[in-house]
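Lecture 7 notes: from sequence to structure.
We start with the chain below.
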Amino acid sequence: MSTNTSLQFSSRELRDLGLAWVALGFAFAIFFAGGGMAAISNVVEGGLLGPFLVSLLTAGIGFLLHELAHKVVAVRYGQVAEFRADYGMLFLAVMSSLAGFIFAAPGAVHHRGMLTEREHGLIALAGPVTNLFLAAVFLPVLLVGVFGGSEFVGLVGSRGVTINLFLAAFNMLPFGALDGNTVISWSKGVFAAVFVPSLLLVVGMFVFGFGLF
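Predicted structure tokens for the same chain:
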């Protein structure tokens, strides 16, 4: 089933997207600096703009485009779909970064309408696949930074690759409300084709140290 439903954004949705992006940028900037009040001091003393910008361009984009991919495919299948930020979880993301770890679940795309199992699966799959695409986009950015001698560009590329591969693998886990659980219920073959490479790439990063923060 498909319709000509156009992709639209309400003022509330745009506000929620903006707030989630900014909150994630701040939380990850503190997390990457090591967490705690000392991290805030280091970030403030060294300048907030650089770390904040890196986080907006990597973690922020990775999380939000993941959610927007769900919306785009849901609308493609005739759903009424909107992103809603979870303010409590955004607050938790900031607070956890101050404690030295990060727990980020900025919100979700809510949709309603009749769907087949396949359509449900494709909507869920869109998020992790978008993260894999973004990881591929950030890879040449990393290479340009490394071979071009730009520490900032290299850092953006490194974190962009790492975060997006992690998001793809984590969200494809076949548990609870994660995307992988919906995908595997629809097609075990599609699930394996996306989850296994994502997991191997993440394991490879940690084993060989490639792309780590």
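Points to note: The chain has two domains: 1-115, 129-213. The longest strand covers residues 80-85.
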